[in-house]
Specification:
The chain is mostly helical. It contains 8 helices and 4 strands. It is globular. Bound molecules: glutathione. It comes from Rhodosorus marinus.
Length: 217
């Protein structure tokens, strides 16, 4: 497994823009080390050993150069070898998994049913937890607003707990997009929730707790 600290890019090893195999690279991932949405794409690139450049936005976030490839001024952004660029981490993950399906690990479970389940977990995570993650670290208009955001994260985690197989993976017998999507964000949960809000994302969620032990190894 890629180490937890290194996954989210805070280990120091990858604090500077990383360029892997810069000769003949097949695209560029634009990321930031603290970005969980970027970390999931980077995880797939590193685990598959893909020949893809990984770099921070040229001249910083929302610079003209960055906006030219990422119209919302966000990371991650991916420039394909045909010159097109794409945004949205799940779309980038899907592209990498599909385009490099012959390079292990596949990141897709064996059956259509399990693949659908893995995708569902990703979406539950993003639409309930990911979209509300600012409640953990952003300035909010009121404590009630913050609590409402945290409650939505809790609900999303409860649903993921329901579907998590802890086999030890989220779904099926192998690492999949569901593991990658949730694990990349769990850095926030594990560091911020106990410190600032007095709860742990594993409390009362034994399957996620077991899954996390395995993923963190
Ligand atoms: N739905 C997007 C979310 C991307 C996102 O929120 N990225 C954050 C970093 S983790 C960002 O760029 N924030 C800066 C901003 O929104 O201005 C995805 O999955 O890629």
């Amino acid at each position: 497994m890629i180490g937890f600290q290194n996954l989210i890019g805070i280990s120091g090893v990858r604090r500077k823009p990383a360029v892997m195999n810069s000769e003949d690279s097949c695209g560029t991932l634009t990321w930031l080390p603290v970005s969980n949405f970027s970390a999931r794409c980077r995880y797939i690139i590193l685990k598959k050993g893909l020949n893809i450049k990984i770099e921070e936005p040229i001249n910083g976030m929302k610079s003209p150069e960055h906006l030219a490839i990422s119209p919302l001024g966000q990371v991650p952004c991916f420039q394909m070898d045909n010159g097109d660029s794409m945004i949205e981490s799940m779309a980038i993950m899907d592209y990498l998994v599909d385009r490099y399906s012959d390079v292990p690990p596949r990141f897709l479970p064996a059956t259509p049913e399990l693949r659908a389940k893995a995708r569902m977990i990703c979406q539950v995570h993003d639409l309930h937890c990911g979209i509300n993650q600012g409640a953990m670290y952003r300035a909010m208009t009121s404590p009630e607003d913050r609590e409402a955001g945290l409650e939505k994260i809790r609900k999303g985690l409860d649903v993921i707990e329901l579907y998590c197989e802890a086999s030890p993976f989220m779904v099926g017998d192998d690492l999949s997009i569901a593991d990658v999507a949730v694990f990349a964000s769990s850095a926030f949960y594990v560091f911020m929730l106990p410190r600032f809000f007095g709860w742990d994302f594993r409390d009362g969620r034994p399957k996620l707790a077991k899954w996390f032990v395995y993923m963190r190894q």
